Every structure is written in structure tokens, then in C-alpha cells.
Amino acid sequence: MEANWKHNFNSIMTVDHIKEQLFIEHLTEVVTSNITNDKFGVSELASQMSMSRSHLHRQVKSITNQSVSQFICKIRLEIAMEMLQENSDSASEVAYNVGFSSPSYFSRCFHNYYGFPPGEVKNRNVDENIDEEGATQINPKQLKAYPKHSVRPKVILFTIIGILAIAIAFISYAVYINGGFLPAHLISNRDLSIIVLPFENLSDNPDNVSFADGIREDILNNLYWITALRVVSRTSAEQFRATNLSATEIAKKMNVHYVLEGSVRRNGDQVRISAQLIDAVAEDHLWSANFDRELDDIIGIQDEIALQVASRLKTVLSKNERRKIEKISTQNPKAYEYFLQARFLHHKTTSELRSGFDKAGVMNCLKYFEMAIAEDEKFAEAYAGLAMANFNLTAWGFIPTNEGFIKAQELSRKALELDQECAEAHAVLGAYLVWAVRELEEGGKELQTAVRLNPNLALARQMYAQFLMITGPIEEARKQVNFTLNLEPNFWVVHNLNSWIYYFEEKYNEALESCITARDYNPNFSSNEWLFVLNYAKLGEGEKMVQHLQQIAQRYSGSEQYTQAIHDAYSRSGIEGLFQWMINVNKNSPIQIEGLNGQPFYIAWWNAILGNEEEAVLWLEKNMQQKRIPWHYFNLIATNPDFDALRENPRFLKIVDDIGLTPYDKRRAK
After folding, report:
1. 258-267 and 284-294 as β-strands: parallel, antiparallel, unpaired?
2. Which of 173, 143, 174 is CA-nearest to residue 157?
3. Fewer beta carbons within 10 Å, N or C terminal of the chain?
4. Whole-model pTM?
């Protein structure tokens, strides 16, 4: 047993962790070489590392349990501590020398990190370790002295501390399994958790990648039906396409026990599908097989592979689970091939993390869904796929609501006529009922049905969580978004949703952490920017609120004309002054960004936060008279805690009643 322990420990230390430590050292070098640049942030670091923002975030988060922004800030603060100990510079000078554009913001960050302000450094015997969540333990007195206004990476220190921390964590959390010790994160949910990697296209024709992807996704969808099995989502697994990582390394990063990988070779009408199941913890191949078929006989092979996996994992399937896995949506090979092409194109219309959307790509997928339906008019999945494509086109504003949403609901209803168990069709129909025609009760039932039919359909979980933000209870919305995060840990929309739900729970520190993660994945989402403003306001962090409000105003107005006015508003009246400034901008000189664009709802919202009850109600009433109501926020007044002060006001209650939210109003629900 001791030999096994040493082998596992040494292999992990010498391969995985040393690679990770070298990566962190490189990051540290890049950050420290840009330390005086206050504009150096996540985007700049990703560029210098030749990585995407999302890839950089995943790497840093998996190693340090910090966002990239937190990692950069930590280095700035540690170097600041050293400079304050060794140099005669003032705290303000040090702030600028380590890349903080605001000395007051630097002072607050420093105090949060070390527990005392920078001005007290020379009066203290700073010998305590820093042990904030996610922070590396570093004794500032051990930091090497640098020349004035100069910084260099602390490579040796980081290496020693990193290896020690890794060793301690390894020993502390090791668990005995399979005759040896393995880190706890490798065995969390270890018994039944799996990632299905993108299948390799071994065909001579590169266009067959859509066919290979389709085979893999159908296997994945069949595995979703196994309720005891935790399955990593397709989008999360997509990051490992063409990766050089081993199955064990991938499993470690995704916290799964098993890996399914495979390939597809197609030559004319001849198809060979190869698959192998790997126990990544034991580093053992459990099962592998080749399936040779004629193209006309390919339908059903995915079911066979999924059942083989279930058997090898010793999973006991219920009759209902087996029935769903063995269910075949179409017997028409041509319809199936068109469907695979359509679904492939729909997935490829967006980036890996879906931070963008390509209208032309979706338009191209529509015709293949339609061709699949033409080949088989009873192909429910094809109708559901076409419904989702139309819904997406409408949601992104590429086609008019009265065209796209109506078509989406008609197609989803057609899919349900053919197959009442089509979870995706229930999800699309539910979204249409809730957000297009505001039939909340019926829409909620459809979304709940979608989740029940396919508990691992991340989109249904996400939509249901958003619905529960309208109706409550927020506690159930929290459960749904937590489940969605488990399915889609790398999707910025889910992290943004998670942050809003924390805001509704009045857990503002947790909300900030989530919106930092969402921003690291996608920095261009206005809803996420407002979360920073609102959470800092609730936490009394006025200077940080000023900074983010200035960024929003400058970005969306295209000028710096508001920068000084925001600063002056805060200087005069603090956080209250900032909200009053926002109200005045909405009334007198709107900026083309939600929150400042003159919509009466936002004037009402900011007044509600200030406790101006009559003004808030007045502007809510004016909002009801608008042609374009921002329903995505207005829908939430029954559960949003910012409106709690209005819940006894008869005029407010009438508004709640007029928009059909009376059954869901927080106070009445009690």
C-alpha cells in the first residue's frame, strides 16, 4: 500500500503540479513586468499568454481557486507590501507604482487583504500569514527587497510555497481507494461521473466532422437519461477538442471518474465507430469496441454504446431509463444525417462559451432541420431543434418577435404532438409562454416538465431558475442554478444568473464573486456590469461603485464627460448621491445603456433603493404606459428585495396585480 501511495504521490507531484507551478510562475512574471500599468488586466494577460480569456480563467481557477482578476490583484498587493516595508514612498505613490489608479481603492483592497491599512505597515510587525479564501499563504517579511519603483517576479518563493501547499493539501485530503491514496477532488462523485470527449473524425473528408460530432452527442444525450450518473455537458467537454491532455488530466480538471473517448471513420456508406471507456482514477481501460455498420444501419448504435457504458459502470437501469435510451426518434437514415448536420451547425454558430452569436450560422442550420423534417414528418427532435433555432434568432434580436417566437412555439407544439417526452420542446414552449406572452403559470409548468423529463438538460434548468426569479421561491431558484452550474461550469450566462440570485438572496459578497467569474468569461455583458454597481452599493463600497459607474458611462457614451460628475456626486452625497446622479441622467441626458437610458422603470428602481416610495411608484406607473417595457427586470418586482419598502403601498400592489404577479408577491406569499 505504501508503494502505491508513493507512486501516486510522486507521479502527481512530478507531472501535474510542477506543470501547474511553472504556469503560475510564468503568469507571475508577466503580471510583475506590467505592474505599473493600471490598464493591465485579464484581457492583456490573456493576450501575452497567447490564451483566450476563458481558457486562462479555467486554468487559473483550477490551480488557485481564484479568478484571474483576483490573481492579478493579489500580486499587486503583495508587491505593494514589500515596497511599503522597504521604501520611503507614501501609500499613494506605492498605489500608482503597483498599478492602482485610485489610492483610496488601493487602500481599501490592501485593508481587505492584510487586515490593516497601508499607512500602518511600518508601525506593525507584519508576520502573520494571509489566509483569505483562495489566497496563497505568504509571509510578507520573506519577500525579497526590490529597488525603488522596480519589481521582479518572486519565482523561487512561489515555487517553494506552492509545492509545500500542494503537499499539505494532498496529504490532508487524500483518501484511500483502489489500494492506494488519491486526492479528494479526483474521487468526489467518483463512482458515477463521466465526461464524453469530442469524437475524432478519422474520415478523409473533413466535412464528416459533423457526423462524428452528432454520433458523440447522441451517446451523450443517452447517458443523460441515467439519473445516477453525473455527465459533464457538451459545452464543457468541448474545451478538450484536440487537447494534448491525458484522460487522467482531463478527469482531474473536470472532477470526474470516467472518460469516454472515441472516433468515427466514414468511407462512403461504410462507417466504423470506435469507443473506449477509461477509469481515469485507476488509469485503467474498462472497455473498448469497434462498431462496423452500413450507413443505413447506423441508427441505434449510440444506444448500444450508452448501454455498454452503463453495464461497465455496473449501473442498474430502471425500466424507464432503459426505455428512454433505446428510444429511436427516426428510422430514416437520410433524415438522421440531415438532423446531425443541422444540430452541428447550430452548435457552431456560437463560441465555445456562447459569448457571441452568428445569425448566418443559425440561418444555415434551419434548412437542414427542414430537410430532416421533409424526409421524416414525424421526427420530433427535428421539430424541437428547429423551434430552438427560431427562438434563439428572436432572443438575439435577429428576427421580429411576432415571427420568431410564434414560429418557435408552433414547432415546439408540433414536436410534442409527436413525442410528449421531448424535453427540449417543453423548454422552448415554456420559455415562449413565460417571456413572449407572459402566461406564467402554464409556462412554469412546461419548464418544470422539461426538467423532470431530462434532469441533465442544462438549458431547461437555466430557464426554470430564471422563471423562479420571477415567481419565487428564491430558495428553489438557488437549487436550480446550483444544478445548472454543475452541468455548465464554464458558461458565463449561468454565472451571471448565479450572481443575480445571490443578489436576491442579499448575499452580496457571493454575488460579487460570481459576477467576477462571469466577467472573466465574457467582459461585454451589460447586465453583469450593473451587478458590480449594485453589489458595491449594498456593501457600502462607494469608491468601487464610482469606478464601475464611470466605466459604464464612458463605455456607452463614448466620452469621459460623466467621469467628473460621478466623482463629484459621490464626494457630495456618497452612495446616495450616485443613485441620484443616475436618476438625473435618466431624466435629462440618457445614455444608451440599460439603467441609464431614460426608461421609467430604472428611475423607479433607483428611487426604490433610495427609499423614495412615492417617486418609485410614480415611475413604475409611467413604465406601465411605455410601448417597450424592459420585462426582463420589470418581471422581477415581486421578488426583488429592492422593492420591499413598497409592498404595503396600494398603488404598487395594483401594478403587481395588473401584470399578473400578485400570487408571487413576496409579502403576500407570506
Report:
1. unpaired
2. 143
3. C
4. 0.72
